[in-house]
Write a structure and sequence with these properties.
transmembrane helix; transmembrane; membrane; DUF2818 family protein; UCP019883; 4 helices; mainly alpha
């Protein structure tokens, strides 16, 4: 796999993974949701687990394309966590604001 292809694939996977906790009501994407719905703490834990999974995928792609892993300091991980938070923004906005507005608009049109 070429380096540029690996980078594009990793970005696509990261954007999808960052938004999954807010798009799905299932706990860990397989369990049935509680009666009250999935809490924000569960969504945050899922988001952090997906961040770790994307990090492992990135390490695997780096090893495959370059043949070694580069040592990274804490600054690298803080920057990646911040970028992952930015990637999650569309799903967060959809879950907390846009979805409710769209539901209210749909109810008004039915009346």
């Amino acid at each position: 796999m070429a380096t540029q292809t690996a980078i594009i694939a990793l970005l696509v996977v990261a954007i999808i993974a960052a938004n999954l906790p807010w798009m799905s009501e299932r706990v860990a994407f397989v369990g049935t949701p509680p009666a009250r719905g999935k809490s924000e703490w569960i969504r945050l834990v899922e988001w952090l687990l997906l961040f770790c999974l994307v990090g492992l995928i990135a390490a695997g792609l780096e090893y495959r394309t370059q043949g070694q892993l580069q040592a990274q300091g804490w600054e690298f991980w803080v920057m990646n966590l911040s970028l992952f938070a930015v990637f999650a923004l569309p799903g967060f906005i959809y879950h907390h604001d846009l979805r409710r507005r769209l539901q209210r608009r749909g109810r008004r049109r039915e009346s």
